[in-house]
Amino acid sequence: MSEFRRNPFTGEWTVYAKNRKNKPYEFHFGENQKIGVGTCPFCPGHETRTTPAIYEKIADGKWQIRVFGNKFPIVQRQDTEDIEEGFYEGVAGIGRHEVMVDTPNHTETIEQFSEQRMLWILEALRLRYTDLLKDETTRHVQIFKNCGARAGMSIYHSHWQMVGIPILPERIRRMAERSMTTECLFCRMIQWEKEQDKRIAGENKSFLAVTPYASRYPYELWILPKTHRKNYIALTEEEMGDLAELLHILLPKVAGLRQDTAYNLCFMDAPKGLDFHWHLQILPRIGGFAGFEHATDCYINTILPEEAADYYQGKSDT
Asked: Closest Cα to residue 217, out of 309, 300, 123?
């Protein structure tokens, strides 16, 4: 059983999932180690090493994308026991945690994918997001991908994770509250960034990629739909194609920042039933956080976002 406990002083939640201490880990001391095909549970031919498939994208008679329940989930459907301790607030860890393997190729990484595969991925994520959102107990769906050991990746074979949780994370709540007042703050930001043209990393018909003004991470990227879309499933088919196109262009640049660059992709979605401006955050894990950041939640960033935008535009080196 897992459980969420809320910090009464900050409002932040911590999830306790003891079963995850047994999950496999294929890296040593934060360094990438390419585990062989013969031992990888995500490779074709090893399907019995995972839970049964929930979804498969088939092409040429073989699966290209495969979704299944996480064997070491953060949350589980059977976690229904009430948590009460008077002074403190806790919530049972009921929910769903899925894994999506986005390529059958053991060594292929997302920045190497074709634009077509990128679109397949985005379509599969939308299908699973829609299904996870249907659960009555789900208050928020978090989609994310860890690329590299320093970004929290535990199995080398490329994959995503999708988690439907029964609480609203404090950071998501604050972002929604601050951005959705009389008008959308994200829409205003998009207009401002286009006028200033100092932090634009990429653009196409449907999306604007910016290095945000107050970036926490060096070379951080936000990809935002130019038309207000409150959640991921609100994107049109044309927008999905344009998002695949922009990711196909930008992710090789993220991976090229350093040798074995680690980074996270995080879908920033609406709290269930509320308005928001959906967007994708790409967080390169260059450098590390220390006491100052952990104590103050104030991040030290060595790269100005204007310099980062120049890199993505090809105007400068790292």
From this structure: 300
| DSSP conformation class of 39 | G
Of 252, 214, 4, 217, the residue nearest 113 (C-alpha): 252
For 96, the token pair is 């769903």
DSSP H helical segments within the chain, as ranges?
115-133, 170-179, 185-196, 237-255, 291-296, 305-312
pLDDT tens digits for range 94-151: 999 999 999 999 999 999 999 999 999 999 999 999 999 999 999 999 999 999 988 9
Which two three-digit tokens encode residue 94? Answer: 């009921």
Q: Are 157 and 106 in contact (CB under 8 A)?
A: yes
pLDDT at residue number 26 = 63
Three-state secondary structure call for residue 112 = helix
Strand partners, 210: 200, 222
Q: Which helix or strand (DSSP H or E) is residue 144 part of?
A: strand 140-147
Q: φ, ψ for residue 142 (rounded to 5)?
A: -115, 120
Place of tokens 């790292």: 318
224/217 Cα distance (integer angstroms): 18
Integer Cα distance of 215 and 284 in angstroms: 11
Distance CA 269, CA 232 (A): 7
| Sheet containing 13-16: order of strands | 13-16, 3-6, 88-92, 84-85
Measured CA to CA, the distance from residue 120 to residue 113 in angstroms comes to 11
Residues 65, 124: contact at Cβ < 8 Å? yes
Per residue in 44-91, pLDDT (tens digit) is: 999 999 999 999 999 999 999 999 999 999 999 875 666 778 899 999
Coil/strand/helix, residue 263: strand
Contacts of residue 203, defined as CB under 8 A and 6 or more positions apart, other chains included, come to 209, 246
